């Protein structure tokens, strides 16, 4: 399944007309309703519609593996299929990346929509009601609310999520790692000074960040992760800090108070017998009351090869529009990138230098004048409609409907690639 390319179109958000601002108004409107997004927030919105006597006709999703499935007994359709079968409906948008959904709906003539995150504000959800753990439901709920609020109020410089790579080292050697750890012959930790300067530069120019994600490699292989977490926890612009780990390194007890901070959230990928300490890591988080979610290594795709493809600009544009990683902002080596692939091929020297592919954040001199210049540059980089990055030509592409491959296949030696510098 492919997703049609959409022009930039402005939809009419129903709530701006003042007639639909809550579930009661949706029910009173008499409009047929659908939900865009068949993930956990789609499930939550569906449940709340049921509680308010609203019938959801169907859900839509761009993930081809979800088409034909059901959420709480309701079918999941593609947008094209839904428009053909049902005509014009009122869409409740549940996905955090609402900026991608609105023009897609408009492309199919669906101009009535409500940002679901605004409906979810101040919502108290019952425990043990949904298909995933309560901690993760709350995590996804907070992200949806923050992202939709920022979309409706675009004056501020808001970032949904930023990955900070604090180490290239990992306890695994996965052949198909999408963060390209398999190419590092001499993986190293990023220095605390470099990480702190990058955080200072980022926080100087943005207004709000829904979440910072600390990643590697395996982030706990860098012992400076703890002062980094403390710095991020003390930053009011950052609402949540998420640590992605395989659980191979159990934190020592003297950091327990830090780890249970309610701004912290741990996502542990359970690789089974490949990692010995995962069970102990999870038990520790449970014992100290730290919010966390355990997931299997699902949905791996073959998206990690590095080589020039020599595509045309049109082909590059199509690849970039379909890419599901184009908003995975990543900080590495004092630079801010649109995606992890661009960050790591630059760090590896696996491409020529592409200065338009990133923003330098670690050279902020602390002055108000430099802050304004850096903020303007950052705002333009984040908000302008890019056709593609120069580094896209070295990437195979990363799409929601890509075939899945065996996860975590291990390699004994670093993979080779052509170095440009």
Series of H and E elements? EHEHEEEHEHEHHEHEHEHEHEHEEHEH
N-C termini distance: 38 Å
Residues in helix, % = 25-40%
CATH architecture name of the largest domain: Alpha-Beta Barrel
Compute the number of structural domains: 2
Number of strands: 15
CATH class of the largest domain: Alpha Beta
- The dominant shape is globular
Weakly predicted, low-confidence segments:
1-11
- CATH superfamily of the largest domain, called what? Aldolase class I
Strand adjacency order, main sheet: 12-11-10-9-8-13-14-15
The total count of helices amounts to 13
Rg over CA atoms: 22 Å
The CATH topology of the largest domain corresponds to TIM Barrel
Strand % is 15-25%
Mean pLDDT, all residues: 92
Helix-strand category? alpha/beta
Summarize the structure.
This protein is an alpha/beta fold and 421 residues long. It has helices spanning 23-29, 40-51, 79-86, 98-107, 116-119, 134-152, 192-205, 225-233, 256-259, 278-288, 313-322, 340-348, 368-383, and strands at residues 12-13, 33-36, 56-60, 70-71, 74-77, 90-93, 112-115, 158-165, 208-215, 241-245, 264-269, 292-295, 329-332, 335-337, 358-360. The radius of gyration is 22 Å and the shape is globular.
Description:
This protein is an alpha/beta fold and 421 residues long. The chain has 2 domains: 12-149, Rossmann fold (3-Layer(aba) Sandwich), CATH 3.40.50.720; 157-394, Aldolase class I (TIM Barrel), CATH 3.20.20. Helices cover 32% and strands 16% of the residues. It has 13 helices and 15 strands. Strand 9, helix 8 (225-233) and strand 10 (241-245) form a beta-alpha-beta unit. Helix 7 (192-205) runs parallel beside helix 8. The longest helix is centred in the middle third of the chain and has 19 residues, at 134-152. Mean pLDDT is 92; it is low at 1-11.
